[in-house]
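Slides due. Your pick:
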Amino acid sequence: MLIQWLKHLIRSQILAFLVSLLFIVSIVTPTFTDSPLTVRRQLQLDSAHTLYDHHATIGTILLHVPIFDQLPSLYNGCEVTSLAMLLRYEGFSVTPRLLARQIGRDPTPIKMGPGGNIVYWGNPNLGFVGSISGRTPGYGVYHGPLFQLMRRYLPHRAQDVTGIHFRNLLRILATGRPVVVWTTINFSPVSNWITWESPSGAVRATLQEHAVVTVGYNQHDVFVNNPLNGEANEPVPIASFRASWIALGRQAITLSAKRDATLFKRKSMSQYGSTKAVHGGKKP
């Protein structure tokens, strides 16, 4: 009997010890009652909320980019004028007139139809089409040839980001890098598209084509240096700007990021005055 009682006592003590151990573990170890997918969803929601709050407190991103006016000498030269601003931002002593002499050209002469419509001309994907000065009819140039000109000055940092999503365009600005983009004169989509033939095939274009330098943004506007009116930090409603940029093929060229982490702090600012100049139209 004594032996049986001792065995029973030992079993009871062992059982009590195990129960106590389980109780202690249950206190110090967190319990996850949610499934992994539920936990993942909550983490995503928390991250999204944090990101929203972060952007809400950023305020205005605005870069101090020198301003140039394309008028009166470069009536159709918004693209080279915009590139001149970007290169000046990087410290190059260039002028719009210098870049106008250096930009690649498509020398194809214009041919007009009986009704005054353009039936044959050059291809802006290959070079500047028509007259940059505006003394004779001129159109403009697209991202490819302008990017090649930019590479002459910044062979290792010139970056063609044509086709990117709009949110990535804003991210580039947030890192302190201005972006030359193609839009329209009024920063809104247009319906007056025309098509002409060129030696390399059909060209679809709008005479409202324009290029500017994006220099910042806030919750409502994108800020641009506009070579057409010589105004720095001109605010443009985000929705309208985005739509016009997409309509022109999401064309954009910029700089690759510098390793110098102080670049953005050095060249960004909360406020920057605008410079006024004579207003005028681009296309004949």
